[in-house]
Amino acid sequence: MLDTIFLMIVNAVVSVLTITLLLRFYMQWMRVSFRNQLGAFVTQLSDWVVLPLRRVVPSLGGLDLSSLVPAILLQALEIAIVVWRRGSPAGIDAVRLGAIMLAVGLIEVIKLSVWLLIIVVFAAAILSWVSPHSPLAPTLNSLARPFLRPIQKLIPPIANIDLSPLVLLLLLQIVLMLIGQVRVSLLPVMF
């Protein structure tokens, strides 16, 4: 039981840090202003990881890899902790196990990115109805807009109601199902 509690706490801490790093990565990639509450929160929570890594990990084509790389490594570290607590799989050498952990870590980052987008789209849609002048609305809209725009070109508003968030949320659920299948296919190799 204590083992389960320990792993739950590790998962919670790693997930919050990973989502924060992903938010920072996407906000910089999409050139979203950090001069708001969300930007300040993300910056303060992730500076201790990102700033030292900027000296070592270069940017690539405008992508801030010093935010993305630690997100992947954190997820791989969480998997390493799970393997450490539950025991290493028999017959797998350390190099192969490390490669599998990094692959699953990358898959987890992709999954968390999809969940982050689901939350952003859902929150932006709710705020557009409930509180369109919220200080958080421009940030959420800036993060969601690049994903909604292609759908809005295909499906025009009906009676002035934009259905693109619903379509995007449905597509993201399908992506999550596919990610789950890929992850499940890797787990037998690991355990």
From TrEMBL:
Query: Would you tell me the protein name for this molecule?
Result: YggT family protein
Coiled-coil segments on the chain, per record: none
Segments crossing the lipid bilayer: 6-26, 97-130, 166-186
**InterPro entries given in the database record:** CCB3/YggT
What the record says about family reads:
Belongs to the YggT family.
What domain of life does the UniProt record list for this protein's source? Answer: Bacteria
Q: Which GO terms describe its cellular component?
A: membrane
As given in the record, the signal peptide range reads none
| Record's keyword terms, sorted | Membrane, Transmembrane, Transmembrane helix
> Tell me, what's a Pfam family for it?
CCB3_YggT
